[in-house]
Amino acid sequence: MATRTASPRKRPLQGRSKHTVAMILEATARVLTSHGYDRTTTNLVAETAGVSIGSLYEYFPNKEGLVAALASAHVAELVARVDAVLALPCEETPRAVVAALVRAGLEAHRVAPALHKVLVEQVPRIGALADAMAVSAVLQAKIAADLQRRAPALPPARVRMVALVLETCIEALTHRAVVEAPDWLETGEIEREALRLLEPYIERALGP
Amino acid sequence: MATRTASPRKRPLQGRSKHTVAMILEATARVLTSHGYDRTTTNLVAETAGVSIGSLYEYFPNKEGLVAALASAHVAELVARVDAVLALPCEETPRAVVAALVRAGLEAHRVAPALHKVLVEQVPRIGALADAMAVSAVLQAKIAADLQRRAPALPPARVRMVALVLETCIEALTHRAVVEAPDWLETGEIEREALRLLEPYIERALGP
DNA sequence: CGATAATCCGAGCGTTTACTCAGCTTCTCA
DNA sequence: TGAGAAGCTGAGTAAACGCTCGGATTATCG
């Protein structure tokens, strides 16, 4: 079983192996959503991808590595979206920024709700997976920095708390929508309600 | 491995066996917090409890059963606390009810934050565990019913949405505090901030 | 073309671990 | 007090599954 800490593996150089890696990741996502984390075996992933188990282990150190790759792709996308929002000009009202953050969180989960559900509910947050899935701290720091920039007068401790609340609620509402009612992701109902919750909060927190 | 669906086992009748079961559950909690879910083996639990593995399987159908017992105890406590809050007289303001709900959520997690952290982060929500850990829907229904009682004029769909937001945010903030800053559970800082967020929201939602 | 590197293959090894069972000990109660 | 019920024991079983390894196949390039 081993569970070694993600040892370095061969990197795909030729187009052939790049394709193989892509197939493996795609298969991982498919197996994960259809079988769940526990019943996802490396052999099944390889078979589903149409490659041999040996090839799989050329590029991924272990089962964790497969899932971590998917998770960090998602995390990277989310971070990118948030960065884009926080690059908005300083003149934007806090409401607008919050609205954009909510939208960013929701957009990032529209792609593959079923996969996200498995990731959230079944994948144990330990080892490499823990790091891969620990976005919240990063996002909170980014949001806090941005808030501080827009409201320099506020004490940093206060800003951090507000960032925590914002990030926590956006993530929670997004995930609830993903796991309990994917429809609401489409209709935008969750988005509207999140704003009803967070806009007054941010106005009071930053405003006079 | 099997993973059969929680088959019925012997129930502890004499005081001796009741004590054994208690020891096993206590050991489960200890091993869970110190080793994590994956590294929690039934043999280790039995050893830690000071009983034989055979005795363990007299009372618990499988590994899931152990964890499910802990989880549903926690869930039962939480539900009881929420029920107590919702039994408050109708004259109470919505703010007061929300404050009480926040407090209930936080109180229920003060007992064993480390255990809750493992339960939330590492235990896969599948099979028996899924049921055991699916409180949110139940709580939302209870909260919705109460809100409707206090504001009969509101459309049911709207009430359900508000209940979802309330329950989601309380749980999320509570869990964040548990896993990221158990201190804030004690200081009451999280509680105050949660109210700053939720009181304006509920007033607008129920009010004129 | 020949040589070297990159890629791919898949049977099977070794370990882990949930769980059983046959027999022993302790309790209950008529 | 003794017979049956309840409880306890722990070495052993069986099966799952992650992962390796020796070797075949294909690409790259002088």
Fold and architecture overview:
2 copies of one chain form a homodimer. Chain A is mostly helical. Helix content of chain A is 75%, strand content 0%. Chain A is built from 11 helices and no strands. The model of chain A is unreliable at 1-7 (pLDDT under 50). The A-B interface holds A 36-38, 121-126, 130, 136-137, 161, 164-165, 168-169, 171-173, 176, 180, 189, 193-194, 196-198, 200-201, 204-205 and B 36-38, 121-126, 130, 136-137, 161, 164-165, 168-169, 171-173, 176, 180, 189, 193-194, 196-198, 200-201, 204-205. Chain B binds a DNA duplex (30 and 30 nucleotides) through helix 1, helix 2 and helix 3.
β-strand percent of chain A reads under 5%
Write down the Rg of chain A.
Answer: 20 Å
- The run of helices and strands of chain A is HHHHHHHHHHH
- Quaternary structure type: homodimer
CATH class of the largest domain in chain A: Mainly Alpha
Blueprint of the fold:
The structure is a homodimer of 208-residue chains.
Chain A: H1 15-35, H2 42-49, H3 53-59, H4 63-86, H5 94-110, H6 113-122, H7 128-133, H8 136-150, H9 156-180, H10 182-187, H11 189-206
The structure holds a DNA duplex (30 and 30 nucleotides).
Primary descriptors:
homodimer; 208 residues; mainly alpha; Arc Repressor Mutant, subunit A; Tetracycline Repressor, domain 2; 2 domains; 11 helices; 75% helix; elongated; disordered N terminus; DNA-binding
